[in-house]
Amino acid sequence: MWIAVLLILFFSYFLNSRPLGRAIYALGNNPEAARVSGVNLARTTLFVYALTGVLVGFAGLIYVARTGIVQTNTGTGFELEVIAAVVLGGTSILGGKGTVIGSLLGAFLVGIIKNGMILLNVPALSEGLVIGALILISVVIDVIRARGERL
Amino acid sequence: MRRMLGQIVENRMLFLLLLLLILFIVFSLGVPGFFTFYNLTNMTQYGVELGLLALAEMLVILSGGGGIDLSVGSMLTLVAMVIGVLIGRVGFNPSLSILLGLLAGVGMGYVNGVLVSYLRILPLIVTLASLYIYKSLALIVAVDPRFGPNPMPVSNFPETFYFVGQFRVGGIPFQVLFIFIPVILILWFLLEKHAFGRYLYGVGSNETAALFSGIDVRRVRLTVYTLAGLLAALSGWIITSRIASARPDIGLGYEMQAITIAVLGGVNIKGGEGTIGGVIMGVAIITLLYNGMQLAGIHQIWQLGSLGLVLVGSVFLNQALLARRKF
To answer: Is residue B69 part of a domain?
Structure first.
């Protein structure tokens, strides 16, 4: 828990206020413009992927510490669930848009839905149905809002 | 020699063919039991199922605009369950059930297509959502109230149902001769000889230009996603028939394999580039690798890893050689 809080604070600061953090957004928004303004594209990309590895490492550490069991198939299927959470949190799949807090809320949302459905005694089978519908609804709202801005 | 090398590199088909040949020779010499008629034809049974999905993925990726279909595995599962439940539990006529299953696939693909092309939501998100939804529906369909609240596989099919997945004509599996090859021919005709293919490549490589030349971009995309649903449905039907059981988890992870095969086969992930021949080569290479490693007794742990290495290696080699040639 405290590890997560620390990481969230650190990365919120990092993405918003450090040159490298801004470079990541710039890269996602317009690679060509970012290159012209002096962002090293290859190095920034490399950094982002390496950082993903570090964060996944933390996740693995916490997971093992929490469950106390190590299985070889731990984490199977996580990638899609995580993408869903991040998309729900408002990150643009095209890159260049999104916040740490948004992703956190997205992850919480997915977690709470799963937990709530168990507590409400809804069969686990329809979990996917709800998550899928939620993704679609959130995106459709996004599309409608974007249209409103343009008009 | 250098010219030959250059040609091989520039022509993706040749490159893949060479890779296939090398694998084939290595396995034939090194693995006993590989180079037998039975094994080689047996291999194609698995290849058909993956191949149909890879072709579906190819069509969708070709259409551009970030086109990708993550839901093929889930569509396959849901179709398999629909067919299984209709025949095994409801007791429908098999042909009718299969028809309904295929229609369900078409419907699922159509829904994806409408969301992508008419509501203009990104394909990755649409198909991620439908992956969850279709998977969940398959689980719900699989619940048999007589045996409690858990999803159960269905396996009491009539003998005639196994025809498609298990019978052989002249030693060659039925589904290869009468489903896979016709599908390839039809798709080849559509892509190479029919106006639709020109539209598809046009939409994929330059959407704006296609729009200005009067192509109904949205209809092309809708058609492609619907076709992907149909191909996934065919694959689901064949699998169910081959393994004689409709399982609610059967299509798990297939979407990733289908995408990798399409990319290995030279389909540009940005759309507009890629051929059926390349994808077929990709399917052949992957199937050969799976089969060869299995027969060689390489442990499952190593199989996935070496598969990934071959994929990354082949793409990297191709690009590196291509880059060198340009200078």
So the answer is: yes
